[in-house]
Design a protein that fits this description.
15 helices, 5-stranded parallel beta sheet, Zinc Finger, Delta Prime, domain 3, alpha/beta, about 10% strand, single chain, about 325 residues, about 55% helix, elongated, Rossmann fold, 5 strands
Amino acid sequence: MNLLPWQQKDWIHLSGYSRQDRVPQALLIHGNKGLGKHQLATQFAFSLLCEKPNTDGLSCGQCDRCRLLKAETHPDFIQIKPEEAGKSITIGQIRNLITGLTLKPQFDTYRVVTINPADLMNNAASNAFLKCLEEPTERTILILITDSLTRLPATIISRCQKLNVAEPNKETVIAWLTQHNPSLLPSHADTLYNLTQGSPLQALNYIDSKILSLRNDCFNAWMDLAKQKQHPVVIAEIWHKLTEAPLLHWITTWTIDIIKCNYQTSPIRLYNPDYKGQLQPLSQRLELKGLYQFYDLILISRQRYMTQINKQSLFEEILINWFELNQSQT
């Protein structure tokens, strides 16, 4: 496993812990989605568990322990994650972890536990996990990973050393994307950078999953609603099944861009500069008060989306409001 190009500074920080023999018992790695936080945490875990790390602090990849790590059979490397996609990390998982930590590490280095994403621990699991932080066991390093620091309890955050993984600059992201996809058009690279807010791995995933084409289809449907050419319930029935598409994020950015266009914002400051020609007329037609009210609904919907709410009903509410907002301005 190699470091990503924008992780060099973060790696120097992490490897410094080992060089100075000051490895924290609890480390919280946070930052926006798609920056490779899991890869960085895993690389750090491998280096701590390796018999003879390289001079740069990276694991050698050749020793017996590195072979165990590659085979995912190293007894002192424990990974905690949701048992099913979209589910929480449960108190049962944390209790099992606590029980396991009562035993000493099997090798003479460290035992490393990663929890990813840490913000998906439910309340009971978070409360139980505090025991690990308050009563650390011998040679055990706890590494928490999250895209959303604010969703973690303050009691957990305060007990961890923190590493904020920053976004790379635009040139780095586009160069890395082009290296992986030599046929990537410059205009598409710019769009991907804007869409993912500088998140390289998310941008790469968008390329692999043909997400740009899906985004365009969804935007056209959204514009058809604005022109009263589609029915919101019909579109909602389609959209709630598109679990791979970050639809709420797209709707949020489209709405923000309409508001920005109202203030004559430069295209370079838009989330979707490629849609400016279609968004600008809406900004001239729709009242700001109605747009801000619609924006508030989207923010509330984004919070609700993480609950057990019926997703089709959620999209119906958003799209009916969007339809009616445009209807009142025609």
